[in-house]
Amino acid sequence: MAVTKESIEVSFNSDADYLIQGLTADVSTIECIYDLVDNSIDAARSKILNGTKPTKKDAFGLPASYKGFKIDLKISASAVSILDNCTGLEESTLSENVFTIGKKSKHAFGIGHYGVGLNRAIFKLGSSVQLKTDNGKHAFSLEFTEDDVRSAVESKSTIKAQRQPTANSNYYRLEIGGIKRDVLGDLGSETWEDSLREQIRIRYAIFCKKGILITVNGKKCGEFGPEIRNPGFLKRRTKNLMSQNGVSIYLEAGLHENYRIAKIDSDYAQLKPIIKNLTPEYGWYIVCNDRIILVADKSKTTGWTTSWHNEYHGFLGWAHYVSEDPSLLPWDTKKTGINTNHQTHVEVLSSLKELADDYRTRNRQLRKSKSGGGVASAPAKPGAGGTGGSGGGVGGSKAIHTKDMDMLIYDISAKSNSPRIASF
User: Fold this and answer.
1) What is the pTM (predicted TM-score) of this model?
2) How far, CA to CA in Å, does 332 sit from each of 38, 340, 393?
3) Confidence tier at 223 by pLDDT (50, 70, 90)
4) Percent of the chain at pLDDT exceeding 90
5) Are strands 393-394 and 170-177 parallel, antiparallel or unpaired?
6) Angle, helix 16-24 to helix 146-155, in steps of 10 degrees
7) What span, in angstroms and rounded, lies between the C-alpha atoms of 319 and 186?
8) What's the average model confidence in pLDDT over 65-81?
């Protein structure tokens, strides 16, 4: 570093230890696996969009098919590997982008845009890497350890990848070895492996439905994704929006495909055993560029301002955020949650609430019309009513709710001095 009488040079280098620890501090093992899968799917999408044949698009402007693409994960206590047949790496991509932390992805409609995912996964899971890639024109192999990376960061040097003869095919294989102690408990567990397969089934359901095949230790990840049915008595509602920063949003809400209403649906008795187990599937599903981020959400994140009760039963909503520039999407850096302060999501919140409330109103009216014209009360709001004590109570025909109740009781007046009884 040069020092003169007039000036000194100021360093803006990164400390290797801080860089690695900062990347991995709050990420889980399963989120690291997501990062690996995201990279492979981005490669598949790029091949589709950049191909010589016209790309067939779905209703949201995204590729309609991923048929023929395969992603194979191998998970054990000694290594984690991912193998795909998507595109392989271009020479410039491997040289300049893949391991450059913070380098913005150039994948159109991507899901791995932050430039940290692959490095985060490597440093969290293990201490050594073997990479082999072939894009039909160029083939390379690269091996390095965490110590090699530390040295390269500190000295601002590089790590050499070796050229290999190409097999004229698309191939990408990354293996992470030297598994770290704090993730061994996950990678060596059959229960965790089953959980991983289940979460991949959910998070990548749309890609799998479009034909991509994802396996974990040889077992295919199953299908997922409840759909909205569209009966004449409770029609599906849709709404399309464009955010101020150019993100396209497609909303649809209505009845869960397996939900039936007594005295209205003729097959209610037949499906009643299934209906009882559907509650965990009700709510909003938030999707960014086909990657499912939130599942069956019934929180303030998706506009819910009242407690859940039976007038919402059967509700299913899908919100698709689509952007060619993934940095504009409202997901968090781990892509397992929504940034509630993101302007795009803030703009959409009122529409999410509007569609859910519309469903509730129509559902209530439908039940009234089919049940002898009974009068349904408005649901009590959080904080309304007495909370016990002298003279506390609920009068008239207001509905009484408790945290564990899933029904409404009409025309009951009650008084209690017990602090354990609450109305809200």
Assistant:
1) 0.81
2) 14, 9, 44
3) confident
4) 61
5) unpaired
6) 130
7) 32
8) 96
30 vs 196: CA distance, rounded Å: 7
Both tokens assigned to 269: 């008795």
Nearest to 202 by CA among 281, 116, 320: 281
Pair of tokens at residue 48: 């589709």
Region 66-91: what's the mean pLDDT?
95
| Alpha-carbon separation of residue 36 from 3, 172, 182, 238, 314 (angstroms) | 44, 11, 19, 34, 35
- How much is the pLDDT for 7? 76
Structure tokens at 72: 């194979």
Cα distances from 167 to residues 48, 132, 137, 220, 298, in angstroms, run 21, 12, 8, 27, 50
Strands 228-229 and 248-256, sheet pairing: antiparallel
Count of residues for the chain? Answer: 424
Candidates 21, 54, 29, 44; CA nearest to 289 is 44
Asked if 333 and 114 touch (Cβ cutoff 8 Å), the reply is: yes
Report the pLDDT value the prediction gives residue 3, as an integer from 0 to 100. Answer: 63
252 Cβ contact list (under 8 Å, min separation 6): 228, 236, 237, 238, 239, 317, 318
* Distance, CA of 73 to CA of 81 (rounded, Å): 6
Which whole-number Å values give the CA distances from 407 to 196, 288, 331, 423, in the listed order?
35, 35, 35, 14
Give per-residue pLDDT as tens, 79-135.
999 999 998 899 988 888 888 776 677 789 999 765 677 888 999 999 999 999 999
Beta strands in 40-98 (DSSP E): 70-75, 80-84
Q: Is 90 helix (H, G, I), strand (E, B) or coil?
A: coil
The predicted pLDDT at position 192 comes to 93
Name which of 221, 340, 365 is nearest 286 in CA terms. Answer: 340
DSSP state of 293: E
Residue 189: count of CB within 10 angstroms of its CB: 14
Residue keyed to tokens 């390269």 = 152
Please, which residues have CB within 8 angstroms of residue 168's CB and are 6 or more apart in sequence? 136
Tokens of 237: 């509602």
Running DSSP on this structure, what letter comes out for residue 319? Answer: E
Phi and psi at 328, nearest 5°, equal -85, -10
CA 408 to centroid of chain Cα atoms: 34
* Separation of alpha carbons 408 and 359, rounded Å: 18
Side-chain half-sphere CA neighbours of 263 within 13 A: 7
Return all residues near 338 (Cβ < 8 A) that are at least 6 apart: 286, 293, 294, 301, 330, 331, 332, 345
